[in-house]
Write a structure and sequence with these properties.
Largest sheet: none
CATH architecture: Up-down Bundle
Number of strands: 0
Shape: globular
Strand content: under 5%
CATH topology: Na+/H+ antiporter like fold
Order of helices and strands: HHHHHHHHHHHHHHHHH
Helix content: over 70%
């Protein structure tokens, strides 16, 4: 019952905050919910001495919720599937080369640049941090967050081609980033695992390709099943089974659940809609996943806002957080600009397009979940604090201004 009570509190708060945002702030729903949650967190901290029981009760509630497991193990699968089911495969096919490059090479480049620059800069402004932990931060902050990106792009007035590049990259780069992060985390925490180039390559291939092929198979099987019965209730249940059963399969096979969800969502959202659904079934299915996407997004960004309560003395990290923001943006620029110059893409990238790809590369809950998964130690709070500062800047500043930036750059 504890889980039910905790989830009930979060749903009530998400509903209240969403209402307050819609009634007064009128910001994009996810950003508004997160901002109000942050303000509520600050209010709880300020009034902690006056109402210590309230502060402690809410802090214990958050500490009892495994954010990493809930996001990476459950919510992310639903959110990725919901995002992928609305994407046209023809658009992805047209932008396949930049999507593949930016979701693989750019993630690795960004990890190296962020880790290297912070290792050089931190002794000058803070204190020396081991290189492996700087690289660990680089790995968890380099992937653009699919949930944040897809949520914000809905309200930003950008071209369809650019939206496909940014959304496609964010959907696929988690597989590479999580593998790189897992390897670096094992090194940082002194794991006895044999981390040779061959083992790391096999891990990457198994996670990424295994997830993709399994997702394609699940999507095809569900689409074929839908062809036999045109019932929107059964179709919705089949897609839920694809997500939840797919997650169990991914865990059992040790392959990438996020990539599995993206692949199955793309197949059902394109092949399934084209061959297996009537207009009524298609309409119900799209509305169901759109509604579920909005609800889970509200809960996720509520989580992000309240994670402020779990960071000890966040104000002590404002300077390194500011440096982290600058370094992450610079690394994002270089990881886009270098491939754009060296790789012969079908369509050349203009300076304006590169700038918007940099500014539209939002960080979100995935980075925070990975930071929280680091074992307790001397650098855990440091990594969590700087990650939180970068994510908050990314969502509030970049997320709220991407539409204006696109208009200014005329992209």
């Amino acid at each position: 019952m504890e889980l039910y009570y905790s989830f009930s509190i979060l749903i009530v708060l998400a509903a209240v905050f969403a209402y307050l945002n819609g009634r007064f702030l009128k910001l994009p729903s996810t950003i508004g919910v997160m901002l109000i949650a942050m303000l509520a967190s600050i209010l709880l901290v300020v009034t902690g001495n006056v109402f210590p029981k309230t502060f402690l009760a809410f802090s214990h509630l958050l500490e009892g919720i495994d954010f990493t497991e809930i996001l990476m193990g459950a919510m992310l699968n639903f959110l990725l599937f919901a995002g992928a089911i609305h994407i046209h495969l023809s658009d992805l096919r047209e932008q396949r080369t930049p999507i593949v490059v930016f979701s693989t090479l750019s993630v690795i480049l960004s990890t190296l640049i962020v880790g290297g620059l912070l290792y050089l800069l931190f002794p000058l402004i803070y204190k020396e941090i081991p290189l492996i932990y700087c690289m660990l931060f680089g790995a968890l902050i380099s992937p653009t967050d699919p949930v944040a990106v897809l949520g914000i792009l809905k309200t930003a007035n950008v071209s369809r081609q650019l939206e496909t590049k940014v959304a496609g990259e964010s959907l696929f780069n988690d597989g590479v980033a999580v593998v790189v992060f897992a390897v670096l985390l094992q090194l940082a925490q002194g794991s006895d695992a044999e981390l040779t180039a061959l083992n790391v390559s096999w891990l990457l291939i198994k996670e990424a390709l295994g997830g993709l092929f399994a997702g394609l198979a699940i999507g095809w099987l569900v689409s074929r099943a839908m062809q036999k019965i045109d019932d929107y209730k059964v179709s919705v249940l089949l897609t839920l089974a694809a997500v939840m059963g797919g997650y169990l399969l991914a865990r059992a096979m040790h392959i990438s659940g996020p990539l599995m969800m993206v692949a199955s969502g793309l197949v059902i959202g394109n092949y399934g809609k084209l061959t297996a659904m009537s207009d009524i079934t298609k309409d119900y299915l799209e509305k169901f996943w759109e509604l579920l996407d909005e609800i889970l997004n509200a809960i996720l960004f509520l989580f992000i806002g309240f994670e402020l309560l779990l960071i000890e003395d966040l104000t002590a990290y404002w300077l390194v957080g500011l440096i982290g923001i600058i370094v992450v943006l610079l690394a994002r620029f270089l990881s886009i600009w270098i491939p754009a110059k060296l790789i012969p893409f079908k369509n050349k990238f203009s300076t304006a397009t590169v700038k918007l790809l940099v500014w539209g590369g939002l960080r979100g809950g995935v980075s925070i979940a990975l930071a929280l998964s680091v074992d307790p130690g001397p650098y855990k709070n440091f990594i969590l604090a700087i990650t939180y500062i970068v994510v908050i800047f990314s969502i509030l500043v970049q997320g709220l201004t991407i539409g204006k930036v696109a208009k200014h750059l005329e992209v």
